[in-house]
Design a protein that fits this description.
It catalyses: ATP + H2O + 4 H(+)(in) = ADP + phosphate + 5 H(+)(out). Produces ATP from ADP in the presence of a proton gradient across the membrane. The V-type alpha chain is a catalytic subunit. GO terms for molecular function: ATP binding; proton-transporting ATP synthase activity, rotational mechanism; proton-transporting ATPase activity, rotational mechanism. The chain has 14 helices and 25 strands. By secondary structure, it is α+β, with helices and mostly antiparallel strands. The protein folds into 4 domains: 71 residues, Thrombin, subunit H (Beta Barrel), CATH 2.40.10; 74 residues, OB fold (Dihydrolipoamide Acetyltransferase, E2P), CATH 2.40.50.100; 191 residues, Rossmann fold; 129 residues, Bovine Mitochondrial F1-ATPase, ATP Synthase Beta Chain, Chain D, domain3. A hairpin with a 2-residue loop joins strand 4 and strand 5. Helix 4 packs across helix 5, helix 10 packs across helix 12 and helix 11 packs parallel to helix 13. It starts with a strand and ends in a 6-residue tail after the last helix.
Length: 588
């Protein structure tokens, strides 16, 4: 019999309910107010009092309102038909809802029960299966999606029956499984899974090492992220977090892209809805939206739904990873998620940590990032979730708790800088403060030596050192003036500017320059390193500046030309002639 209760305290979205039976942490309940049923989640239990966070506005809710507990946690419904969908944080299908604004207490089913799917069996009668074993597959938006044994299965089961190839609805029983005790499990194409519990349906989780090509040079060349890796992009307002996320979403080598707009302003979320359907996938030439799922949660929605949205997105990502797919999950912004945690913690009068965030904010962030990763499935196949979150620190302060705690767990750090953005040096990623821990891993070094060459990492380290040296000389020039430092110092500075303009800066709105293949990045890196190793002959600092400005202009024109095209070779020849003008002759 379901536990019932009565509301006896309301603080904004946190409601206290006196219950008449047992309730569990994270259990879902519905509170009735007027004609509306408001969904809520248990976040704390003290004796007969259950503290719940309501996923809707509590306006008009009164003491004494009845509540009924469901006996299960907040779950997502998984199955064919999720690609190209727009969901809210509770996985309601936004496209099925009426009107401009979401109505309180209105919930929609996330999948389409009427559509027919072409099912192809992969298992046969008599096969032994376990949780998440592949039973069959369907084709959705040119993606082969697996229909799996229920994730909740414990132990081994035999396939008693499975339907033949044909068209079926998602709620049709496609297989019957039985265990040694004779218990039967009916399997449809639909799965349900609690969002707060990680899916552990894999064999092992090795350290990731395969580079995830994003086409963004400042990432791929200087601080690469790997397939199944974690990274985050902190930066103040206006530094280009959203544009960089869009570029990575569009260009990264991923099978599925999930965008979690967590607590963003409504106009930015609308931008995602209007822009993403227009984007073309550079890998397939098809619409990017065909392999994208958007979880939208605006800043004016209740904080509890904001907290749920990131877990909903991660659970959907884990579902596709169990199919052996490469998933890219982008969360914008995890700061808003942390602020939701802070708000609920404060309402529960918990002891506050730094900046009033919960004391366990570090563990919460760590556990969430830990759900991403590269895994080997039980059948020997591999799947991955690459997670990149953005952080919006107040006033661009990278010392605040969310940034600091994320830094501890995310392996890649892409610091967006206001100064670079103000100087229109996009993407405004600070190349000196940013880092990738993956570049230190022996597995990655071995992989990159085979994929590119064994000198790649040494060249990248040299580029970073030259950028650091260029920054130091720039400060000296600012203090002493152009005449106050020797010409050779100006050469070192302008070589670092060459690296900045040609490798770091990229035009996200140019068809060619927006995406740079790894082969082309190798060519650009080799070209810049050769120039940096070349000795030039100058008498005054003005000669240095004029010469390198000409060189930067030619190199940028090369970036805008198609790789190995006639124009590309024309600019390459111009560059060679320019280098010959000032190159110091080598003595034999």
């Amino acid at each position: 019999m379901a536990t019932k209760g009565t509301v006896n305290g309301i603080i904004a979205n946190m409601v206290t309910i006196v219950v008449d039976g047992p309730v569990a942490q994270n259990e879902i309940c519905y509170i009735t107010t007027g004609s509306d049923r408001l969904m809520a989640e248990v976040i704390k239990v003290e004796g007969s009092n259950a503290y719940v966070q309501v996923f809707e506005s509590t306006r008009g809710l009164k003491i004494g309102a009845p509540a009924e507990f469901t006996g299960h946690m907040l779950e997502v419904t998984l199955g064919p038909g999720m690609l190209s969908k727009n969901y809210d944080g509770l996985q309601n299908d936004l496209d099925k809802m009426d009107g401009i604004f979401l109505k309180r207490g209105q919930y929609t089913y996330p999948l389409d029960k009427e559509s027919l799917w072409e099912f192809k069996p992969l298992a046969k009668v008599g096969d032994t299966v376990i949780a998440a074993s592949w039973l069959g597959e369907v084709l959705e938006n040119f993606q082969r999606l697996k229909i799996m044994a229920p994730f909740r299965l414990e132990g081994e089961y035999k396939v008693k029956s499975i339907v033949s190839e044909g068209q079926y609805k998602i709620d049709k029983i496609i297989a019957v499984l039985t265990n040694e005790a004779g218990d039967e499990v009916n399997v449809s194409m639909i799965q349900r899974w609690p969002v707060k519990i990680p899916m552990l349906n894999y064999d092992e989780k090795p350290r990731p090492f395969k580079i995830l090509e994003t086409g963004v040079r400042v990432i791929d060349t200087l601080n690469p992220i790997v397939e199944g890796g974690t990274g985050f992009i902190p930066g103040p307002f206006g530094t280009g977090k959203t544009v960089l996320q869009h570029a990575i979403s569009k260009q990264a080598e991923a099978d599925i892209v999930i965008i979690a707009a967590c607590g963003e302003r409504a106009n930015e979320v609308v931008e995602i809805f209007t822009e993403f359907p227009e984007l073309i996938d550079p890998h397939t030439g098809r619409q990017l939206m065909e392999r994208t799922i958007i979880i939208a949660n605006t800043s004016n929605m209740p904080v509890a739904a904001r907290e749920a949205s990131v877990y909903t997105a991660m659970t959907i990502a884990e579902y596709y990873r169990a199919m052996g797919l490469k998933v890219l999950l982008m969360a914008d912004s995890t700061s808003r998620w942390a602020q939701a945690l802070r708000e609920m913690s404060n309402r529960m009068e918990e002891l506050p940590g730094p900046d009033a965030f919960p004391m366990d904010i570090s563990a919460i962030i760590s556990n969430f990032y830990g759900r991403a990763g590269y895994v080997t499935l039980k059948n020997g196949k591999t799947g991955s979730i690459t997670f990149i979150g953005t952080v919006s620190p107040a006033g661009g302060n990278l010392k605040e708790p969310v940034t600091e705690n994320t830094k501890k767990v995310a392996r890649c750090f892409y610091a967006l800088e206001q100064e670079r953005a103000d100087r229109k040096r996009y993407p405004a990623v600070n190349p000196i403060d940013s880092y990738s821990k993956y570049i230190e891993y022996p597995e990655f070094r071995k992989y990159i030596s085979k994929k590119i060459n064994d000198k790649w990492i040494g060249k990248v380290d040299e580029i970073k050192n030259r950028l650091q040296r260029g920054k130091e000389i720039s400060e000296q020039i600012n203090i002493l003036g152009d005449d106050g430092v020797p010409a050779e110092y100006h050469v070192v500075f302008w070589k670092s500017e060459l690296i900045d303009f040609v490798i770091l800066q990229q035009d996200a709105f140019d068809e060619v320059d927006a995406v740079t293949s790894l082969e082309r990045q190798e060519s650009i890196l080799d070209m810049i390193i050769d120039i940096c190793h070349t000795e030039f002959n100058f008498d005054t600092f003005s000669e240095v500046m004029d010469y390198f400005k000409r060189m930067i202009n030619i190199c940028k024109q090369m970036n805008y030309a198609k790789f190995k095209s006639d124009d590309y070779y024309k600019f390459q020849k111009e560059l060679e002639e320019l280098i010959a003008e000032r190159k110091v002759a080598e003595h034999k």
